[in-house]
Every structure is written in structure tokens, then in C-alpha cells.
Specification:
membrane; mainly alpha; electron transport; flavoprotein; single chain; heme; metal-binding
């Protein structure tokens, strides 16, 4: 129990380190010519990183037998939500200047927002229902709801892809990771169905 407790603290502090870094860079004015854009991109990237981290837990538990990771999966998922909300907040504050009337026109001008917005809404829904109490209330529907994280991950990748102006490096890298994380789950699901057919 003590090991789990200290591991949770260590993961929590590590997960906050990107926020500490971008805060330090902001205060010391080291964000370059367009600080607002840098903050928005940075927080968005870390939202996707934490989605990758949380969705990597199950494969690592099953393939590498790192069972100790399972207890930390929810925290990693909540940090994906945290950085996604930081991403949205920094966009609204630093890019739109809290002028919400511009948001609709931005949706038309920048289609990648139409991919990112539902991804954030999904993460909010998953975050709100991540407690043990909500698991009990939703029952079997809880697992169905939380499978939407795969949709959020795909939409997050589309959000990145549609923003590309020059280099496709990050979009391709994120796409490969997304394909691996979703592909391995599709493979496992197919194997499960085949076993059920044989058993029947």
C-alpha cells in the first residue's frame, strides 16, 4: 500500500511537470515570438500524450505484465482531461481574448476545431463518470461509455492532422501511435469473438 501511495505521488508530480515547465517559460518570457500559440500547442500536445499514456496501460499490463500500472490508469486519463481543458482555456483566453462570439466564425474558418471540440467533450464525460460511484450507477453502460476514449483519441489525431502547415512529422507519429493502440485492441476483440464462437 505504501509503495502504491508513493508511486501515485511521483506520477502526480511528473504529470504536473509540463505545466510547471510552460509556466516557467511564460514567466521568464522564453516562449518566442508568439507565446499564445506556443502555450495552446503545448497544452494540446500534452493532452494527447496523456491519452497515449493512459491507453498504453492495458497493453503494458497484458504484454509486459506490468500490473502495477493498472491502478494509475485513471489518474493518467484525468491528466489527459486536465491538459485538454488547459488547451481550451488557453485558446479562449490567449487567442480569442474571451470573445466567445468569435468562436462560431473560428469553427467555420478552422475545421480542425470541429474535430477537437467533441474530443474534449468526450474526455469531460469520461472524467465526470470516472469515480467508483458512477461505475456502480452506470453498471455495464460504464464500460460502453468509456470506450468512447478511442473516438476521442482518433479525433485528437485528426485535430492535429488538420492543423499541419509544413511538417507532417508529429501528425504521422501521432497517427502511428494511434493506429498501434487502437489496432491492438481490435486484434484482441477479434480474438475474443473467435473464442466465443468456438466455445458456442
Amino acid at each position: 500500500m505504501t509503495v502504491v501511495w508513493w508511486r501515485r505521488i511521483a506520477i502526480f508530480l511528473l504529470a504536473l511537470s509540463p505545466l510547471a515547465f510552460i509556466t516557467y517559460m511564460t514567466v521568464t518570457q522564453q516562449l518566442g515570438a508568439d507565446p499564445a500559440k506556443t502555450i495552446v500547442l503545448f497544452t494540446g500536445e500534452w493532452a494527447i500524450y496523456f491519452l497515449f499514456f493512459s491507453l498504453s496501460v492495458t497493453p503494458l499490463v497484458r504484454l509486459a505484465k506490468w500490473r502495477w500500472l493498472m491502478v494509475h490508469r485513471r489518474m493518467l486519463g484525468l491528466f489527459a482531461l486536465f491538459y485538454a481543458l488547459c488547451h481550451v482555456a488557453s485558446y479562449l483566453v490567449f487567442i480569442l481574448g474571451l470573445d466567445l462570439s468569435r468562436f462560431v466564425s473560428e469553427l467555420v474558418k478552422r475545421p480542425y476545431i470541429t474535430a477537437g471540440a467533441p474530443a474534449v467533450l468526450i474526455l469531460i464525460a469520461l472524467g465526470v463518470t470516472s469515480t467508483k460511484g458512477m461505475m456502480r450507477r452506470l453498471g455495464k453502460n460504464w464500460q460502453k461509455l468509456h470506450r468512447l476514449v478511442y473516438v476521442a483519441l482518433f479525433l485528437g489525431w485528426v485535430h492535429v492532422l488538420w492543423q499541419v502547415r509544413s511538417s507532417y512529422f508529429h501528425a504521422v507519429l501521432f497517427g502511428v501511435i494511434t493506429l498501434v493502440l487502437l489496432g491492438i485492441r481490435f486484434y484482441w476483440h477479434r480474438q475474443k469473438l473467435q473464442k466465443q464462437k468456438k466455445a458456442a
